[in-house]
Design a protein that fits this description.
Blueprint (H helix, E strand, L loop, with lengths): L8 H12 L3 H11 L2 H18 L4 H8 L3 H13 L3 H9 L2
Length: 96
């Protein structure tokens, strides 16, 4: 399923490039070149917030453990409820 707001050849190329990566080390290499440290940390933080929300953690617990703002936690929660199940899919495949 492609989202119309993201349907773009350059974005397709990015996602296809990510899908070619085979190891965590390759991901480190690629994302280190592609993103700033803060961008990578923000992405990782959002995934962790989603994991914690799924297991029933409170906003306070999430804020303390991840340093995420309540705005970030709310945004992730909204995606978990009304989004495209991307977090669900990834977290289930990670086996958490």
């Amino acid at each position: 399923m492609q989202l119309k707001k993201l349907n773009d050849k350059a974005i397709d190329q990015l996602f296809e490039a990510i899908l070619t990566l085979r190891t965590v080390e390759e991901c480190y290499q690629f994302f280190d070149d592609l993103c700033t440290i803060n961008e990578i940390q923000s992405l990782a933080q959002r995934l962790e917030v989603a994991r914690m929300l799924r297991k029933g953690s409170t906003y306070n617990q999430i804020e303390q453990e991840t340093g995420a703002s309540t705005a970030t936690i709310s945004r992730v929660k909204r995606c978990l409820i009304y989004g495209n199940d991307g977090y669900q899919l990834a977290l289930e495949r990670l086996g958490r």
